[in-house]
Design brief:
heterodimer; A: 115 residues; mainly beta; 7-stranded mixed β-sheet; 0% helix; globular; B: 113 residues; 6-stranded mixed β-sheet; 5-stranded antiparallel β-sheet; 54% strand
């Protein structure tokens, strides 16, 4: 297994456009998380899935953001009508949750720049 | 809500010295706490997990302590090397059965040769 992968690594888009990011987790992991990180800040939780079910979504996440994990494997994060404030690194992580403490394995991130 | 505070300033030390990073938290009693390393432009990498009933955990040159009374964890790197230069993040697990972890803003460590 090569770890968590994300695509694309970089995305430049104009304000108002829609963008979609993909995350492929470690294959046996049942949980998948999306975070957003800006310079000098720690990762900020956006949402997470257990298998295909989206179990929690941050209250900070506007209706322009949507995420899916249709078959419990890869996930997509879509941002509609992008704004300059959406510029950030979008990180995906996965973990194998079995009820106890767990570590998260992060992907390399997708850096979004909204012009 | 949970709040995490890490060293607010960057930490610069000389090679061979011990680096000590601090993580303080409030409004929470976590069952465990985690430390991650993040290099510029890359995702965080898990380093260590320490449980509430463990006072200290070691891994090679890394040592983590966890004081639940002080609500504080200390992260030590002994015999530091320039390759240890990175940002180190402290993370708290969910306070419920939810999946959300809370990360601190990290401390950037620079080890000078």
């Amino acid at each position: 297994d090569t770890g968590v992968s994300q695509d694309p690594r970089h995305k430049i888009t104009k304000r108002g456009q829609n963008v979609t990011f993909r995350c492929d987790p470690i294959s046996e992991h049942n949980r998948l998380y999306w975070y957003r990180q800006t310079l000098g800040q720690g990762p900020e939780f956006l949402t997470y899935f257990q298998n295909e079910a989206q179990l929690e979504k941050s209250r900070l996440l506007s209706d322009r953001f949507s995420a899916e994990r249709p078959k419990g494997s890869f996930s997509t994060l879509e941002i509609q009508r992008t704004e300059q404030g959406d510029s950030a690194m979008y990180l995906c992580a996965s973990s194998l949750f079995a009820g106890g403490p767990y570590e998260q394995y992060f992907g390399p991130g997708t850096r979004l720049t909204v012009t | 809500s949970q709040k995490i505070e890490q060293n607010s300033e960057a930490l610069n030390i000389q090679e061979g010295k011990t680096a000590t990073l601090t993580c303080n938290y409030t409004n929470y009693s976590p069952a465990y706490l985690q430390w991650y390393r993040q290099d510029p432009g890359r995702g965080p990498v898990f380093l260590l997990l320490i449980r509430e009933n463990e006072k200290e955990k070691r891994k090679e040159r890394l040592k983590v302590t966890f004081d639940t009374t002080l609500k504080q964890s200390l992260f030590h790197i002994t015999a530091s090397q320039p390759a240890d230069s990175a940002t180190y993040l402290c993370a708290l697990p969910p306070d419920t059965n939810a999946g959300k972890s809370t990360f601190g803003d990290g401390t950037t460590l620079t080890v000078k040769p």
